[in-house]
Design goal:
A hairpin with a 3-residue loop joins strand 5 and strand 6. It is extended, with a radius of gyration of 26 Å. Strands 1, 2, 3, 4, 5, 6 and 7 form a seven-stranded mixed β-sheet that branches. The protein is α/β, with parallel strands linked by helices and 194 residues long. The two termini are 39 Å apart.
Length: 194
C-alpha cells in the first residue's frame, strides 16, 4: 500500500512540475490590411486562427496560448487599443496579460485580379453523308488571385525578440483566406515549436 501511495505522490509532483513549467503565450489581434483598408474583424480572425492551430498541435509547442477573449478583454480594460498600441512596450503588454511571451502579427492582403480560361471541343459525325451529328462542349473557369504578406514577431516578457520574420505567399493564392498558409509556414519555424 505504501508503494502505491508513494507512486501516486511522485506522479502528482511530476505532473505539477510539468504543468507549472509550461509557459504562456498571448497572441494579439493581427493588424490586417485588406487592399489598404484596415479590418479589425479579420485581425481577430487571424488571431483566433493561430490560437486554434497551436491548441490543435499543442504537442509540438513549448507554450500554451491564452484564449482570445481573455486577451482582448484584458487589453481593453488596460486601455490598450489599436489606435494607441504603439504607446506600450512589449514588456508592459506582457505584464498586463500576465504571460511569458507576446506574439504580434500583421497581414497585408491585396487582390491581384482574376484570370479566366475557356476550353472546349467539337465533333462532327457524317454517316454516309445522309445525316450530320454535331457534338460539342465548352468549359469556362475563372479564378481570383490574392497576394498576402504575413509578418510575425514574438517577444519574451522582458521585451527581447526571439522571432521576427515576414513571409509572402506560400502557394498560389486563389482563395481569400490563403494568408493562413503563410501563418502555418511561419508557425513551423517558431523557436517555440519542436
Amino acid at each position: 500500500m505504501d508503494k502505491i501511495k508513494y507512486a501516486l505522490i511522485a506522479a502528482f509532483v511530476c505532473f505539477s512540475i510539468t504543468v507549472k513549467s509550461q509557459e504562456s503565450l498571448a497572441i494579439l489581434p493581427f493588424a490586417f490590411a485588406d487592399d489598404g483598408h484596415v479590418s479589425e474583424q479579420l485581425g481577430k480572425e487571424a488571431q483566433q486562427f493561430l490560437i486554434q492551430y497551436i491548441v490543435k498541435k499543442q504537442k509540438h509547442f513549448t507554450v500554451v496560448p491564452k484564449n482570445a477573449r481573455d486577451i482582448n478583454v484584458a487589453l481593453k480594460k488596460a486601455g490598450i487599443t489599436s489606435e494607441n498600441f504603439d504607446d506600450f512596450t512589449t514588456n508592459e503588454i506582457a505584464e498586463t496579460l500576465d504571460v511569458d511571451y507576446v506574439l504580434l502579427g500583421s497581414v497585408d492582403r491585396t487582390f491581384e485580379g482574376s484570370s479566366s480560361v475557356t476550353t472546349g471541343f467539337g465533333s462532327v459525325n457524317q454517316k454516309d453523308w445522309n445525316k450530320t451529328n454535331v457534338y460539342g462542349s465548352s468549359v469556362n473557369t475563372s479564378s481570383k488571385k490574392y497576394h498576402a504578406t504575413v509578418y510575425i514577431s514574438i517577444f519574451k516578457k522582458d521585451g527581447n525578440a526571439i522571432y521576427d520574420k515576414s513571409k509572402a505567399n506560400v502557394f498560389i493564392d486563389d482563395t481569400s483566406d490563403s494568408w493562413k498558409n503563410s501563418i502555418i509556414w511561419q508557425v513551423r519555424h517558431f523557436p517555440l515549436y519542436h
